[in-house]
Design brief:
The chain is built from 3 helices and 3 strands. It is α+β, with helices and mostly antiparallel strands. Helix 2 links the parallel strand 2 and strand 3. The chain is globular, with a radius of gyration of 13 Å. The N and C termini lie far apart (33 Å).
């Protein structure tokens, strides 16, 4: 099965971690949307665990760099939103287990 650009983006996002939580941002449920275009454009809409997150800038920059490093990507558009606000319910089962929430 061929790996799509969206799959590659998802894989890259699984390598980005919130410094305060030992789980990647994808499994934490911080990635709300991934859109890929035929021309290599990628847009990611994501949130943070808290609006006042002190590492917001560095996480956003890391996401941007990881997406741009993917073969075939020509542009990365990483957007931050707090609507809807993040909750623990958005985490994957694996993340909840890892953090002891289950």
């Amino acid at each position: 099965m061929e790996t799509t650009l969206r799959d590659k983006v998802e894989e890259a996002l699984r390598t980005v971690h919130d410094p305060e939580i030992p789980v990647n941002i994808f499994d934490l449920g911080l990635v709300y949307k991934i859109e890929t275009g035929d021309n290599g454009n990628v847009m990611v809409i994501m949130t943070l665990t808290a609006p006042g997150c002190p590492v917001a800038g560095s996480i956003m920059e890391e996401v941007n760099q990881k997406i741009l490093a993917i073969e075939g990507v020509t542009n990365a558009d990483v957007r931050l939103t707090f609507d809807p606000p993040w909750t623990r319910d958005m985490m994957s089962v694996e993340a909840k287990l890892e953090l002891g929430f289950l």
